Amino acid sequence: DSVLVGVSGGPDSVALVHALRFLASDLSFTLGIAHLNHCLRGSDSDNDARFVLSLSERLRLPYYTAKENVLSYKQRRGLSLEDAARHIRYEFYYNTAKTNGFNKIALGHHQDDNAELILMHFFRGSGPRGISGIPPIRTHQENSIHIIRPFIELPKTQIMNFLKTNKFQYVIDKSNQDASHLRNQIRNDLLPLLKTTYNPKIIETLNRLGSIVRAEDKWIEDIITPVFEQVTHRQGNGRIILSLSELHQLPAAAQRRIIRKAIAEIKGNIRRITLAHIDSILTLSKDGPGQSHLDLPNHIKVVKNNNNLLIFHENKYLIERKTASDPYTYTIFNSLEDIDLCENVAEQERSFQNGKIKSLFIKEMNAHLRFTKIRSQDLSDIKQNGLQSAFFDFDRLNSPLILRTIMPGDRFHPLGMTGSQKLKKYFINQKIPRDIRARIPVLVSSGKIIWVVGHRIDNAFKITSTTRNILKAELFLA
Predict the structure, then answer these.
(1) Mean pLDDT across the stretch 68-84?
(2) N or C: lower Cβ tally within 10 Å for the chain?
(3) What is the 3 state secondary structure string of the chain?
(4) 283 or 326: whose pLDDT is higher?
(5) 109 with 149: CB under 8 angstroms?
(6) What is the pLDDT of residue 354?
(7) Residues 145, 153: contact at Cβ < 8 Å?
(8) Pairwise CA distance, residues 111 & 152, whole Å
């Protein structure tokens, strides 16, 4: 094995890397250290990064680091600070492990951490998945890299004694004393009270509860999986269809589990999905004939259509919205952050061939559209805008990105021309027949036309020498 240790510089992660180093030669595995600077505590964050670098040098271990602005990410994604930090941190760990050949990522969570998390989930009214706590081992679905937590059955006191006995240095995160955070309140106030007043072994008791619930939850999940397959009819492009006639024959608990499982497959997790959301979906599923829908957090959409329940991610796939004035309107991306990122055109082509980038079908055009964000220092590999492709300065765009038919009064500034024009005049000048004009869509960024699809982009969004990120849009006739 090759183990990447996530090291913050705090006591738990420092103890972990020392413990694993003691064991490495006997158990024949190699080690590396990964540290993410979250940029949340100013100079303290930078000092932590320097400490971990110094530690890796003393231990002669490979060191991998990155610096990410978690606050900015939080605001862009509309997440809590804790969720934003977790998402960035785990993405960094997985990418570092995959790039550098590590098959395990070791983290320093221990018994006390697990007890705190179980109580947090209990206070939030979580179900078995939350009450089960932190799993000792978790496998990433896409790349089979294991998250391992060797300290998960050890109390914090044993870890601190290990550090003290061996005189190992570490840093202290002062934010752990911030009483405004629920986790700190549980750690510093509630658990000590429970220990002294009610149960001196409350940490062990909560961990035992988590272990029991985790085992039973896995057992139930094994039972639900074949039932889920029976009531599920999959459709391409990340959509799942549930048969309502089969779903309604099941007990309410099984129905909830199946819907949660469907959402997890589409979304990748069930964060921000509550019991109220699940029960709202069940209520929707019992509506009379016809179509109705629900919008869930993170752009998950649920559509009830007669005897089927369709669940999909609205961000990544074209969703049709019709009004009296628009023959068709597709909201392609509610957030530009959801567009696939590639480092260059060559990577973009490989990603498309591997199925990582989706081609989106527009039935009214009988054509596919593909969107990719490209980050490249060398713009020489970018082809010129043509009939079937267009390149835009990504950083000049704003959400949402919409494809729609032409509306009266539409105008834009054609690339290479002086000033703006009404689309009607542009089509006349380009000698495009009237019957064809009605079938030409426009790509719109936050209400402004950026591409007359298959013809010309708007001059304001062209690539220049200062462009850092590029949006590539491609049209393929079916």
Answers:
(1) 75
(2) C
(3) CEEEEECCCCHHHHHHHHHHHHHHHHHCCEEEEEEEECCCCCHHHHHHHHHHHHHHHHHCCCEEEEECCHHHHHHHHCCCHHHHHHHHHHHHHHHHHHHHCCCEEECCCCHHHHHHHHHHHHHCCCCHHHHCCCCCEEECCCCCCEEECCCCCCCHHHHHHHHHHHCCCCCCCHHHHCCCCHHHHHHHHHHHHHHHHCCCCHHHHHHHHHHHHHHHHHHHHHHHHHHHHHHEEEECCCEEEEEHHHHCCCCHHHHHHHHHHHHHHHHCCCCCCCHHHHHHHHHHHCCCCCEEEEEEHHHEEEEEECCEEEEEECCCCCEEECCCCCCCEEEEECCHHHCCEECCHHHHHHHHHCCCCCCEEECCCCEEEEEEEEECCCHHHCCCCCCCEEEEEHHHCCCCEEEEECCCCCEECECCCCCCEEHHHHHHHCCCCHHHHCCCEEEEECCEEEEECCCEEEHHHCCCCCCCEEEEEEEEEC
(4) 283
(5) yes
(6) 44
(7) no
(8) 5
Predicted local confidence at residue 402, as pLDDT: 83
| Beta partners for residue 106, in sequence order | 5, 148
pLDDT in tens, 410-425: 899 999 888 899 998 9
Q: In this predicted structure, what is the pLDDT of residue 287?
A: 75
pLDDT in tens, 322-380: 333 345 677 767 667 666 655 444 544 444 444 444 456 666 666 677 888 887 655 55
Query: Distance of alpha carbon 87 from its chain centroid, rounded?
Result: 7
pTM of the model: 0.63
Residue 454 to residue 440: CA distance in whole angstroms: 8
* 216 contact partners, CB below 8 Å, separation of at least 6: 128
Q: Please tell me the distance from the alpha carbon of residue 140 to that of residue 363, in angstroms, as a whole number.
A: 36
